[in-house]
Structures are given as C-alpha cells and as structure tokens.
Amino acid sequence: MPLQETLFCSQQIHIPPELPDMLKKFTKAAIRTQPLNLLDWATSYFQALANGQPLPVKDCFEMPASAHAEHFGLTPGLLKTLHKQLGHKGLVDWAELVTRWQDLGLLSEHLNSLKELGDFEEKFNWLQFFVLGCSALSENLEQAMELACKVLTTDPEGGPARIPFSTFSEMFHFLCRVDGDISIQNMTRVLTTLETERCQ
Fold it and tell me: What parts of the sequence cross the membrane (predicted)?
C-alpha cells in the first residue's frame, strides 16, 4: 500500500531565522568572487562556513590586473583570498593549496606552472608562493613588490602600504633568485637603499 502523500502548507514549513541573511551573504560573495564553477565554489563556501574557516571570497568584484594576467585567471583579489586562507600558516602543504586553488575555479595547469617556476616542494614557504603569484600578475619586479605590499599591509586602503622590512626583504630575495638576471650586488644595493630610507 503506497504511503500517503504529505501535504505542506506555509504554516508547516519552518524556516530558520538566520537563513535569509545567510543566503544574502552567499549571493553577495558569489557576485564579488565570480567563480567559474558556481557549484564547486558553493560547496567550498559552505564547508568553510560550517568549519569556521576563512571563506573563499574576494573583498570586491574586480577585473584581471593586466592583459598579461588575463589568460591566467588569477587576480589580486583571488591572491588576497588565498593569502587570508593560508598566509597564517607559514609553511603550507601543496595538496591544501591545490584544493583552495580549485575552490576558486583557477586552472591546475597555471598552478603547476608556478610550482615549477618556484621549484616548490610538497611543503613550501607560503610567502614565496604568494610573491611569485604577485609576479605573475605584474609586468616587472617593481610592480610585483608593490602589489605584494598592497595585499600584505595593515595600513588603510590608499595609505603608504607599509610592511615589515624583513618580509619585504625575504620576498625580494626570492623573486631575484627566481629571476636569475639580478646580481647579488644589485639586490643588496636596492635593499640597503630602502633600509637607509626607512631609518631616516
């Protein structure tokens, strides 16, 4: 004998009071982030929400940083989102970055290109990967370092974008090493000049 079909009316359906606000925040986050695969991104969004982790959400809607970065898919906002999720760790497992990267709808071959370029191991220094990402979004070393400072600074937006000199120095050393065309003398001269200006 078939089960009797249950009829629902609006009075029988209980809607949690926090649901409308949660859906509103989710919708705004999706519009800002513009994920390529909304379903996969939504899964990672709600998993992060349930686990109290940083959400895979950009701070604002943005266009690619440059024509150079357009084919790459990565933007300063997405890089900043990755930094919010992984930057506090220092050393990061490559598998976790792969998951976070895919959650944002970025292509695996681009991530693999950065891994090869930076010669990253299965456990790697996040700051080095981060600044290499800045380099991928920039036309030259100076622009890459400016972008890194803008993302990492705690200064208000539009301010001087200051970061600790040791952090700047570590990122600059790494990019110079990856570039290979900058001599140790030039690198040292730049850092010495910057440190002198900082102390004045």
Answer: none
